[in-house]
Design goal:
heterodimer; A: 467 residues; alpha/beta; OB fold (Dihydrolipoamide Acetyltransferase, E2P); Rossmann fold; 3 domains; 5-stranded antiparallel beta sheet; 24% strand; B: 342 residues; two-stranded antiparallel ribbon; 12 helices; 8 strands
């Protein structure tokens, strides 16, 4: 059968081109890879290669033709043994015009007249589901410990449970962790499973993801999340997207953890809250606990989760103590917010360090007769919208608290969701308390101003209560 | 080195690889290598054609000219070894034994593509066949491949990982972060640098201070060598040497494959950075498939008729793949929200 050579598309956006030159003439033999013609587009002159063997039987579009639409037959190649009589009705498509007198392309007008094709509606995104916190057995002993210890215990328990779990990062082994979160792990699990890396975030993040793609369960510690920016390509392009890009065939269960947000007096490059960055990426789960029990239960859940999890800790909170249930296996659900303080007058939504401001503000507000309901998001992605909405339906007012910048922040997202799902319940616009939109200053007084404060949360809550 | 190079001052520094004796293939090896290389070439030609017809969208990077590299390397590997590469990945998938139908259907964005049509040309995977992608960001596969090797090391098995990247990716920082860790921890990683002499449109000599890329591991004490990447036998021999090194627990190994890409960087590359004569010279004097064909005839492993039968079978296979990929339906809209989490 004769083979039609079609006007090729040479870029993702090309629709037509000029056939400037034929390099073979009718009757010439061609083989795969031979250049047979040259095409001009608005970008460049390109060569057309034959993809089949045979004889150039007929040229359908002469050299010098302008605006030849992609996919128009431009020539016919005859296979061995065929002659010209095999070519039937192969006529040039009507849209070709001579280059010299090319009138305005009719084809374009035609397509403009046509009604735009209806694009199918995207299906609804599935709503995230999360179980409730497990009930603690009657009489469960509570042990007070720091968040640092709770995180360490979570890792140790999971490493005892599963030989595929290992920890890697800068100073996690012999130094015992730059913030002592991995204290004692080297002694218990040895250097094969507690691995000091070179200072090479991009490299070890990618290496960890590769190991996870092969089925291991790495916990990768970033000394702080500020340094994870060096690894951002691997976190987003490799960790978050591979499951989708492989059609569900291959994904990675990996935890990236370390302190996030503002510490104290370390200035702009070491003081940034990445909550909004990571929580905008489909494929990642993002957790940011505020207390020791949540830190332990959620880190254990993160290590067991088959997806990439960004686990945002906080340096200041590492030393804060709070009660943790003494259970053999205390695991909390990812994606479930917690009502940390019940109230009926205003909803305050916070997470991680923001909870410290929120809870202190709630105390002060209580003195003024305002009972705030404080929601600890705990998981930023998937976000437990339902718990927020239920609370706002009750209170009619909401304040968000975060250390991060306001523009495109998590607070902005929460405010939008409240508007979408509880607009009719709102008695006041949602207020956002956030970090100021400046690189974190070093000077103590300026640093304080750049951060959210209890006073700002109190003022915002009063404002939405019109008090 | 028979591969043409625009600025030949670099070529002067390179050791003569052609002088090394190349171990001969037996009949089965020569015929099998010929068939697989031809399958890759025909697949890529068909992909180029289908791109031209608008059936394949976006970016499409063809492997034509470089076939001997993946085919020779794959002959040096064992079952269970892993392969990972960048975006010029169709050849690697076929060499790994993935079904051309599934690969082509992914190129056309259809249901039975290897990624259900959600990955496309640059993002395909087959855990079954040990192929870990298919990665679109230049150089990103290098730490990932090092991680696969890390997993083998962690598990104490005798599997090795081959990480392919190009002369362009060889200038990415993460490559050297990976080299350091692989050498430090003695990971079973073969790094295959496919030096096709052009990173998109930039000749190696215009982008690299050290153009002998096999030396790029020197400061990490990673041994490296240059290999005639147009001779499948030389590739296999080098691959076996590197694999043995890795399996012996000696750590990583670098193989720089001197090869050449006939087509543009991607479909929309007008290739103004090199002359047509340069391309033609490689094609006519140093084509990996023509050379294999010549050998087969000389050694009487097959006659013209026998080769024609192989050619016809390969063409048939590829036509079936194209046919399948053209008529397979697009993914169901319900696939939009699947496979984000598991």
């Amino acid at each position: 059968m004769p083979i039609e050579v079609l006007m090729p598309a040479l870029s993702p956006t090309m629709e037509k081109g000029n056939l400037s030159k034929w390099l073979k003439k009718e009757g010439d033999s061609v083989k795969s890879g031979d250049i047979i013609a040259e095409i001009e587009t608005d970008k460049a002159t390109m060569e057309v290669e034959a993809a089949d063997e045979g004889t150039l039987g007929k040229i359908l579009v002469p050299a010098g033709t302008a605006d030849v639409a992609v996919n128009t037959p431009i020539a016919v190649i005859l296979a061995a043994g065929e002659d010209k009589s095999a070519i039937k009705d192969a006529k040039p498509a009507p849209q070709q015009k001579a280059a010299a007198s090319a009138p305005p392309a009719k084809t374009e007008k035609k397509t403009q007249d046509k009604p735009a094709p209806k694009s199918p509606k995207a299906p609804e995104a599935p709503a995230p589901q999360a179980a409730a916190d497990p009930d603690l057995p009657e009489g469960t002993e509570m042990v007070t410990m720091t968040m640092r210890e709770a995180l360490r215990d979570a890792m140790a328990e999971e490493m005892r449970r599963d030989g595929d779990v290992f920890v890697m990062g800068e100073e996690v082994a012999e130094y015992q962790g730059a913030y002592k979160v991995t204290q004692g792990l080297l002694q218990e699990f040895g250097p094969k499973r507690v691995i000091d890396t070179p200072i090479t975030e991009h490299g070890f993040a990618g290496l960890g993801i590769g190991a996870a793609l092969a089925g291991l369960k790495p916990i990768v510690e970033f000394m702080t999340f500020n340094f994870a920016m060096q690894a951002m390509d691997q976190l987003i392009n490799s960790a978050a997207k591979t499951l989708y890009m492989s059609g569900g065939q291959m994904g990675c269960g990996i935890v990236f953890r370390g302190p996030n947000g503002v510490a104290a007096r370390v200035a702009a490059q070491h003081s940034q809250d990445y909550s909004a960055w990571y929580s905008s990426v489909p494929g990642l789960k993002v957790i940011a606990p505020s207390n020791a029990a949540d830190a332990k239960g959620l880190l254990k859940a993160a290590i067991r989760n088959p997806n990439p999890v960004i686990f945002l800790e906080n340096e200041i909170l590492y030393g804060h103590s709070s009660p943790v249930p003494k259970l053999d296996d205390f695991v909390l659900p990812i994606g479930k917010a917690k009502i940390a303080r019940a109230g009926s007058d205003v909803t305050i939504v916070a997470w991680s360090m923001g909870m410290s401001y929120a809870l202190k503000a709630a105390e002060e507000l209580s003195h003024d007769g305002i009972e705030a309901e404080v929601i600890d998001l705990r998981t930023l992605k998937p976000m437990d919208t339902e718990t927020i909405i239920e609370s706002v339906k009750k209170t009619g007012r909401a304040v968000t608290v975060e250390e991060g910048w306001q523009q495109s922040g998590v607070g902005a997202e929460i405010a939008a969701r409240i508007m979408e799902h509880a607009f009719d319940y709102l008695d006041a616009p949602v207020a956002r308390v956030s970090g100021k939109e400046v690189p974190m200053p070093y000077a103590a007084n300026l640093e304080k101003l750049a951060l959210p404060s209890v006073a700002e949360v109190v003022a915002a809550a009063k404002a939405v209560c019109y008090r | 080195m028979a591969v043409a190079q625009k600025n030949s001052n670099a070529a002067d520094k390179e050791p003569a690889t052609a002088s090394k004796p190349v171990p001969e293939f037996n009949k089965e090896q020569d015929l099998s290598a010929y068939r697989t290389m031809l399958t890759i070439r025909r697949f890529e030609e068909k992909a180029g054609q289908m791109y031209g017809m608008g059936l394949i969208g976006g970016f499409c990077h063809l492997y034509i000219g470089q076939e001997a590299v993946v085919v020779g390397m794959q002959m040096a590997l064992k079952d269970g070894d892993q392969v990972i590469t960048g975006y010029r990945d169709h050849g690697h998938m076929i060499a790994c034994g993935m079904d051309p139908k599934g690969v082509m259907a992914e190129l056309t964005g259809r249901t039975h593509g290897y990624s259900k049509g959600k990955g496309g040309s640059m993002h395909m995977f087959s855990v079954d066949k040990g192929f870990f992608g298919g990665h679109g960001i230049v150089g990103a596969q290098v730490p990932l491949g090092t991680g696969l090797a890390f997993a083998n090391h962690y598990r104490g098995n005798d599997k090795i990982t081959v990480t392919y990247f190009g002369d362009g990716a060889a200038n990415q920082g993460q490559v050297y972060e990976s080299f350091n860790m692989a050498a430090l921890w003695k990971l079973p990683a073969i790094y295959v640098i496919e030096n096709n002499h052009y990173a998109m449109g930039t000749a190696v000599t215009r982008a690299s201070a050290e153009v002998n890329l096999s030396r790029r591991g020197l400061s990490f004490n990673i041994p490296g060598e240059q290999v005639d990447g147009m001779d499948v036998r030389a590739v296999k021999a080098a691959g076996e040497k590197a694999a043995a090194w890795c399996r012996d627990g000696k750590g990583p190994y670098i193989l720089e494959m001197l090869t050449y890409r006939y087509r543009g960087h991607s479909m929309s590359d007008p290739a103004k950075y090199r002359t047509r004569e340069e391309v033609d010279k490689v094609r006519t004097t140093n084509d990996p498939i023509d050379m294999a064909r010549q050998r087969i005839l000389e050694k009487k492993f097959a006659n013209e008729d026998g080769l024609k039968k192989i050619d016809a079978a390969v063409r048939d296979l590829i036509n079936q793949a194209a046919e399948f990929a053209t008529h397979d339906p697009e993914p169901d809209v319900s696939e939009l929200y699947t496979d984000i989490y598991r």
